[in-house]
Amino acid sequence: MGTVGTHPHTKLVCVIDYGMGNLNSVAKAAQTVAPAHTHVEITHNPDRIEAADAIIFPGQGAARACMQALTDAGLHQPILKASHEKPFLGICMGLQVLMGHSEENQGVDCLNRLPGQTHRFNLTPYPELKLPHMGWNRIHQTLDHPIWQGIEQDAWFYFVHSYYVQPDAAETIAGQTSHGETFCSAIAQDNIFAIQAHPEKSADSGLRLLKNFMHWPGK
User: Is 37 among the catalytic positions?
Assistant: First the structure.
């Protein structure tokens, strides 16, 4: 996303690259709404992640493949460390693998940063609905949080997923969406905000969410 500027206070935002997800669109959208003297960089280098002022952790695909990719790239511990220390935005799979365990692929242990489970939708009572849950749907904000600033209640966001998270701590649920059943579509805890939808594909509301994150000090 260009070269790092020479300004002495350039802010570094790293988009974590572990080989899964449309990283260029995420990075481009984040750079578009970033404050002055901000450099958005796609990286799998643990040293750059350590140096970053903020982290975006996107992803798509399957949980087992994601966890294997993180392990193969040596990113498991750097991501966990960053998630305790910096403003941290998880997107789609970057939300799901923050949980302790996922039902996907006959079950897989995840990062366990936010205790909870990732479940597959049960649409048996809703034969008119399909998986994956794909397309536009509303997010009902359940927490007053800086990341929601300027985003209307029940705003539309773009989703592509067949699994949803259920955190152990209900008070961390920042947004809910309905696809048959009502599920957790956003989580906020301390310096972490994570969302099931794809803000980079969610028009004005998604760009506003990314802008809010790029200005957020993480508390």
Answer: no
pTM over 0.90: yes
pLDDT tens for residues 66-94? Answer: 999 999 999 999 999 999 999 999 999 99
CB contact at 8 A, 20 and 7: no
Q: What is the pLDDT of residue 8?
A: 58
Range 11-215 classified under CATH 3.40.50.880 = yes
Q: Record the tokens describing residue 94, joined without a space.
A: 């970057």
119 to 17, 45, 116, 124: CA distances (angstroms): 25, 31, 10, 14
Asked if 200 is an active-site residue, the reply is yes
Q: Considering 14, 66, 92, 110, which one is annotated as catalytic?
A: 92
Helix, strand and coil content of the chain, in percent to the nearest 5, comes to: 30, 30, 40
Q: In this predicted structure, which of 80-89, 99-108, 193-202 has the lowest mean pLDDT?
A: 99-108
Residues in the chain: 219
Distance CA 59, CA 56 (A): 10
- Identify whether 184 is a catalytic site residue: no
